[in-house]
Amino acid sequence: MQASYLWKKLFTRKHLIEHYEEKVKDKPSVGLDKVSPRKFEQNLNENIEIIIRKSMNGSYHFTRYKQLLFTKGPFKPPRAICVPTLRDKLTASVLNELLVGVYGDKCKTMMPQLVIDDISKKISLYTHFIKLDVKSFYGSINQDKLIRIIKRKIHKTEIISIIWNAIRTEALLYPIKEKTVKGERTRGVPEGLPISNTLANIYMQDIDTKYGKLDYISYYRYVDDILILVNEDKYFDVKKNICDDIKKLGLELNEKKDEGFVTKSFEYLGYVLNDSEVTVRKSSVLKIEQSLEELFRTIKKENIGYLQWKLNLKITGFILEKHKYGWLFFYSQITDLSLLFHLDDVVQKLIKRYKLEGKIKIKRFVRTYAEMHMALHETKYIPNLDALKLEDKKAILSDIYQMDLSDKDENFVEIQFHRIMKREIRDIEKDIENIS
After folding, report:
1. Is 346 domain-assigned?
2. Inside any domain, residue 125
3. Following DSSP, what letter does each residue of 225-284 receive, concatenated?
4. pLDDT, averaged in runs of 10, over the chain (436 residues)
């Protein structure tokens, strides 16, 4: 679809309000301007008027991003995430909608489960694998090259201007300890914006297209992790060519490469694969084991209902707003069922250690896996929170979370249930390691 048409359609008052309600409102964040979601909504019409006016006349400027650092483990530099103001987040989110409309699937990141499923189906056709990792991917993207690539499809000056401003805006480490002179980001794409992944995928589109079309390899890229399945006769040529192409983009590969026969196990997106089995890497198994034990250790014995609820959420995961959450949902492509029996055994040993036999009714990883693969849309074993009635939500809030709902209306119940389950999502997602 043409960018100019989408520009006129998306950057309107009606669409910006709809987009805010559907995409931004439930994922609030506070940027350096310290404007809360409540305050932003009080001035929603004014904020939208500013977005439209400044976008259309080419004067829209992003406020400096709040930078948060997240550890990626020992001996690794932290991940720097940029948090925009709510106004900038809405602007960038609609801009991302425009880019997806122009580029389609080429700028989307495929779900890890779909990637692993495809690998497991094709791995037996090849003898070798090549695994490459782009060093400091987002931070190494050449901004001028990115804009030149975008200009092949998007010519409208106002769109280019707003993209340029988004990637040039600097980030300040939070909390801010001293005043700084305003500068510009001269390299890379800020990570954490609604457009970050899309811009990175656009930057890599030539490589993705070139190697995705080759019929003698299977090519996969998830953000900065590249995997190629290839036979021995093409192994060295493919490896040399893709390394050269990545270098031409101004990107650098990490020195540590993983390559060899597909009969040898290798890691990709948190999974461990070879030509006969798909399982989970040891560190991820250890993480879920520790998470399960932490629940037994930290939740008081008298609150058995809460412990049972939390354990079962970790085991089965759940569905909310049509999205699937949970450790086993993420690792749903494994074929190593012995791992699931092992985790069920871990839970039973914890129940015995904490003297809770006969007092707690816990679900099983093995049964959950079977339900996911055979009856996900019919099962009641895995909670589908979208299907709960108001009375069910009230029961969960009052019985499990000990909330007093006397004299509370339906709106209050819905808001509180949604808020608490969003908190559970954050807790459950901690069990899934950083995969890239």
Report:
1. yes
2. no
3. EEEEEE-GGGHHHHHHHHHHHHHHTT--B-S--EEEETTS-EEETTEEE-SS-EEE-HHH
4. 94 97 88 94 97 96 94 78 97 98 95 97 98 96 98 97 97 77 88 97 98 98 97 97 97 90 95 96 96 94 91 97 95 98 98 94 98 92 96 96 93 93 93 76
